[in-house]
Every structure is written in structure tokens, then in C-alpha cells.
Specification:
By secondary structure, the chain is an alpha/beta fold. The chain has 15 helices and 14 strands. The structure holds adenosine monophosphate.
Length: 402
């Protein structure tokens, strides 16, 4: 069985074609800069060189057309007929409180998704365009939607509610939703497999640390709390996002700076100009920050310290929420690749039974591994995330009613 996973961003279409018997990737790529003159298509398939070309992709439909044509290409393609694709899995960033699990696309589901446009205006219309483009190009092939928010739908109300007047929850659905759910779900399942225990007997904290970061408390396979909120802005300090701040800073900025009367300018300030970027004045990229810290840059060090401290606070809070944990899992760009960040976060947590083996932690490896000391009560694990595979598995599950 072959499954195509599609991830439509506001100006990109990313895809992976899986062979599900082996769960291996057969072909993958991205069409970037959709709608712009500099649009390009980068792709690769198993056993072949990567190719990159400038392309004409005025919209998501044209981008999806390019992808399907490439997959079907006589010389370089990976399939001979579209019917070889059993189902298409779409990554959807925000399912609001409408979607608590993956669903097969039909007219009602599409109507429900349209109702989610206002809650994630950057992402959902692009996802929707992608779904329609796939329907057009792969007529008759079913599509499944897999939501980043779905895994977090098990949170209790006291964890997902904000203490603002209740009417805004009722009218505007303002509540914590949480994000990166597919990643938190994947790594918690892998952690259980690596520990050789059923997931429903484990307490795990998963730290997805990338450009965007979120920490999740998972008990018996169910999310109890997560650091991102109504939007992916809440929580820990991130690459260019501020994470938790005193909400009263917002009306203050609006009062003092006329340019912030426009809500969009404030959104840009908090989402694109804050975090590591805003504090260091240098970059939102952790690799640049780590290098600058080593070279003695004080503001880079402050930004680095703030990010690690904010993650440590969430881990400690969720340790209390769960009354202890079996495993702490690091994943995503920073979590998988930065020993310096992991070491700093785990330093001085021995009171919680979190003890890192700093030598193991520093060993370069792209593999899943345990980096805690043998006496550490909590297993510290590094697990590369695989959201695409998780989406493919979900699509298969829905299609086959597993
Ligand atoms: P992601 O959003 O998961 O792709 O993660 C992107 C983040 O991972 C960026 O901040 C990168 O700087 C960071 N990253 C990737 N590789 C490394 C590395 N070797 N050391 C430190 N940070 C890294």
C-alpha cells in the first residue's frame, strides 16, 4: 500500500510518498515560493539524485499538479498510475474544537474545516486549497485529515481553559488547543516501544524543540497539558516567538506606540521578531546562537539562557502535574541536535530523578537513544520525530478501519 502525505503551508507544498509495508519513503520533495516568480521545486526519490528546478506555480493547484506529474513521470517517477496511491494524508495545523481525531474528507468535513479558517488564518486556507487540488488531480482517491491539535484534545478542562470571562470560550472558542500533536504522539509511542512497556502504563514529558517549541505532559498515552495555547505563540521561548509574556504588555505597547494600534504589527512583533531573535538581536536560529555564545556574545547568551530556563520550568511543572515521570523525550531540530541545549535544560534536576550522562549526550548521532545515567530514575531519551510517517499511519488506520 502506498500513501501520499501532503503538507500545504501558506506558500509551499511538501510531500512524502510512503510504501507502507516497510514504512519507507519512496519519494519526497517541496514546491516553495508558490505565487512568486522565484518558485522552485526540489525533490528526491529513492536511489536517485536530488533535483531542483525553477517552476511556475501560481497557486496550490499548480504546485500539486507538478508533484503528481513528477510522481507519474515515465523516467523519474515512482508510480505508474494514480490508483497506486491508496489514500492521501493531509497535515492540518488547527482543528479547533471541531476535530478531535483524524477524519476521512467529505462535504461536511470540508465545511467544518472552512469554519476553522478564522482560528488559523495563515494555515487553514492553504490546507484547504491543497485538499481541493489533490481532489482535482487524484480524483477518486480518498483523503484523510490529520490534525496537529487532535492529540491534545484529551486535556482536562481546567488545563485548557483560560481564566477570562467564560463567554469568550462559548462564543469565540478561545481555549488552549496545543500544537505539534502529531510529533508528541509519535515520540511518546516510540518511547514506550524503546522502554518495552505499554504506553498506557507510562508518564512521559515530550519536549519538541525546533523553530517553534512545545512541551507536553502525557499520562497513559493521553495528553494532560501542553505549553502552546490558543495559538502556537504561547509557552516556552522560541526562535522568533516570545512564548509566555505578561498579557498586560500588549495594551501597554498599544498605548505607547501608535504603530501597534494595528493588531497585525503586534502579531509580527511577537511571532517574528521576538524569542532568540528579539533578545539576541542576532538570529532566531539556535546554531547561530550557540556559536555566538561560544564567541562570548552576551545577548546571545542571555537568549540561550532564557530559552533553556523556560523549558526547564515547564518540565518541572509537568513533573509535578504528573506526580513523577518515567521518561523525558527530546525531539525536533534543537531537541535532536543540540547537546548544549539538552545539557543545560537537564542540569540540576537530580531532585526530580533526572540525571543526564553528559558524555553520551554529547556523542553525535542521528539515532534514537537514551542519554541518562544508569541511576537516573527518569530515562532521558532523544527520538527523531517523524510527523510524515505518523500522518501516513493515521491515514492507513482511518482507511482500513483498524
Ligand atoms: P525545526 O523547526 O525542528 O526544523 O528546528 C529548527 C531549529 O533547530 C533551528 O533553531 C536550528 O538552529 C536548530 N538546530 C538544527 N540543528 C542544530 C544543531 N546541530 N545544533 C543546534 N541547533 C540546531
Amino acid at each position: 500500500m502506498k500513501i501520499l502525505v501532503v503538507n500545504c503551508g501558506s506558500s509551499s507544498v511538501k510531500y512524502t510518498l510512503f510504501e507502507m509495508e516497510t514504512e519507507k519513503k519512496i519519494a519526497w520533495g517541496i514546491v516553495e515560493c508558490i505565487g512568486l516568480a522565484e518558485a522552485y521545486y526540489k525533490r528526491q526519490s529513492i536511489g536517485r539524485e536530488e533535483k531542483k528546478d525553477s517552476v511556475k506555480a501560481a497557486d496550490h493547484t499548480q504546485a500539486v499538479e507538478l508533484v503528481i506529474k513528477e510522481l507519474l513521470d515515465k523516467e523519474n517517477g515512482s508510480i505508474q498510475n494514480i490508483d497506486e496511491i491508496s489514500v492521501v494524508g493531509h497535515r492540518i495545523v488547527h482543528g479547533g474544537d471541531k476535530f478531535s481525531k483524524s477524519v476521512l474528507v467529505d462535504k461536511d468535513v470540508k465545511a467544518g474545516l472552512r469554519e476553522c479558517f478564522s482560528i488559523a488564518p495563515l494555515h487553514t486556507p492553504a490546507h484547504y486549497a491543497g485538499i481541493e487540488a489533490v481532489e482535482k488531480m487524484l480524483s477518486g482517491i480518498p483523503s484523510v485529515l490529520v490534525f496537529d491539535t487532535a492529540f491534545h484534545q484529551t486535556m482536562p478542562d481546567y488545563a485548557y481553559m483560560y481564566a477570562i470571562p467564560y463567554e469568550y470560550y462559548e462564543k469565540d472558542h478561545i481555549r488552549r488547543y496545543g500544537f505539534h500533536g502529531t510529533s508528541h504522539n509519535y515520540v511518546s509511542q516510540r518511547a514506550a516501544q524503546m522502554l518495552g512497556k505499554p504506553l498506557n502504563e507510562l508518564k512521559i514529558i515530550t519536549a519538541h524543540l525546533g523553530n517553534g517549541s512545545s512541551i507536553t505532559a502525557v499520562e497513559n498515552g493521553k495528553v494532560i497539558d501542553t505549553s502552546m495555547g490558543f495559538t502556537p505563540l504561547q509557552g516556552v521561548v522560541m526562535g522568533t516567538r516570545c512564548g509566555d509574556i505578561d498579557p498586560a504588555i500588549i495594551p501597554y505597547l498599544i498605548d505607547v506606540y501608535p504603530e501597534y494600534k494595528d493588531g497585525n504589527a503586534l502579531n509580527i512583533l511577537m511571532n517574528k521578531k521576538s524569542g532568540l531573535m528579539g533578545v539576541s538581536g542576532l538570529s532566531g536560529d539556535m546554531r547561530t546562537i550557540v556559536k555566538a555564545v561560544a564567541a562570548g556574545n552576551k545577548r546571545a547568551k542571555l537568549a540561550f539562557d532564557m530559552l533553556c530556563y523556560s523549558v526547564k520550568k515547564y518540565i518541572s511543572a509537568y513533573f509535578g502535574v504528573l506526580n513523577g515521570i518515567d521518561a523525558l523525550v527530546f525531539t525536533a531540530g534543537i531537541g535532536e541536535n543540540s547537546p548544549t541545549v539538552r545539557e543545560r535544560i537537564c542540569a540540576n534536576l537530580s531532585a526530580l530523578g533526572i540525571e543526564m550522562d553528559n558524555v553520551k549526550n554529547a556523542e553525535p548521532s542521528g539515532e534514537e537513544r537514551v542519554v541518562s545515567t544508569p541511576v537516573s530514575k527518569v530515562k532521558i531519551m532523544i527520538i527523531p520525530t517523524n510527523e510524515e510517517l505518523m500522518i501516513a499511519r493515521e491515514a492507513k488506520k482511518i482507511l482500513t478501519n483498524e
